[in-house]
Amino acid sequence: MALAEPRYDHYSRVRANYLPGGWQAARIQAASKILLRTLGLFDSVLRQTIEMLYEFEEPFIVDHSRFARAFGNHATPLREAIGQTVRWYRDERPAAG
């Protein structure tokens, strides 16, 4: 009886090349807008990435003044909000089983 050939799948390749014992440093390179636009003609994921570039090119400016004027400025402090959430989860989660 002959032994089956070992299966070489994606996981085996990742394990061999990137996990301890076979670690390789990742090569990272920036791509210009022009290159992304050109590649976007052939790849829909890159085309969508181009639409979202504004998220990485400009800082996010968050202003809640209109909301505060309409509803009041009464944010729950973070520690209190986390405590309330944890207590709710402990009280409301379904029993295991």
Q: Which percent range describes the beta-strand content?
A: under 5%
Q: From the structure provided, what is the oligomeric state, counting identical versus distinct chains?
A: single chain
Task: From the alpha carbons, calculate the radius of gyration and give it in angstroms.
Answer: 25 Å
Q: What number is the mean pLDDT?
A: 79
The tally of strands reads 0
What's the overall geometry? extended
Question: In whole angstroms, how far apart are the ends?
Answer: 46 Å
Strand count, sense and closure of the main sheet? none
Low-confidence stretches: none
Structural class of the helices, strands and pairings? mainly alpha
Q: Can you write the helix and strand succession as a string? A: HHHHHH
Helix content: 40-55%
The DSSP helix count reads: 6
Structural account:
With 97 residues, the protein is mainly alpha-helical. The chain has a domain at 29-60. 53% of the residues lie in helices and 0% in strands. It has six helices and no strands. It has helices spanning 10-18, 33-40, 44-51, 54-57, 65-71, 78-92. The radius of gyration is 25 Å and the shape is extended. The two termini are 46 Å apart. The mean pLDDT is 79.
What are the SSEs and their pairings?
Layout: H1 10-18, H2 33-40, H3 44-51, H4 54-57, H5 65-71, H6 78-92
Helix pairs in contact: 2-3
